[in-house]
Design a protein that fits this description.
35% of the residues lie in helices and 18% in strands. It is α/β, with parallel strands linked by helices and 172 residues long. The mean pLDDT is 91.
């Protein structure tokens, strides 16, 4: 038996590596799927004194897009988000760790795809949502339950294949 142990260990590791090669790194399982979206109340970018909380969207299906002005991928995603805004998809922005306070000027210059963008300067709300980087987008249903977490920029392909069908199903 001792003589076969290295072969058994090698075969087990090879099996794990083989399976791992076929996994999508953007498909990170989130422990928040199927659970109530974490509550927060944050200031709205560019609207002194105004705040936003997910409670305000109870009864609606909406997207929470975590982004940052310093994020290159977020800038690539911007045009796709503007297209979603044009067709009436409610996307809310979470401006994550914007220490330079660049969001307001950037959105004024490039146009805002968001219904509302809130400031998460210290990143605590992002931590509550399990954010590992930007951009990340959460689809939240009418009851306030997270139904999907998409890591990376939204583009035409993942919109048509994953996000749009789920939104249609949730809006029935």
């Amino acid at each position: 038996m001792k003589r076969w142990l290295p072969l058994i260990i090698f075969a087990a590791l090879a099996g794990f590596f083989y399976v791992g090669l076929h996994l999508n790194p953007r498909e990170v399982p989130s422990p928040f799927i199927g659970k109530l979206a974490p509550a927060f109340k944050l200031p709205v970018v560019g609207q002194p004194g105004a705040t936003f909380s997910p409670e305000e969207n109870k009864g609606k299906v909406w997207l929470l897009n975590v982004w940052a002005p310093w994020c290159v991928s977020c800038r690539q995603e911007h045009e796709a988000l503007m297209q979603l805004k044009a067709i009436g998809v409610p996307v809310y922005g979470l401006n994550w760790k914007d220490k330079g306070r660049e969001a307001e000027a950037l959105l004024a210059r490039e146009g805002s795809p968001y219904v509302v963008t809130v400031d998460d300067l210290d990143g605590r709300v992002g931590i509550d949502y399990g954010v590992t980087g930007t951009p990340e987008t959460f689809i939240i249903d009418k009851a306030g339950i997270i139904r999907m977490k998409h890591i990376g920029p939204i583009n035409a392909e993942n919109w048509q294949e994953k996000i749009e069908p789920l939104l249609k199903e949730l809006n029935k």
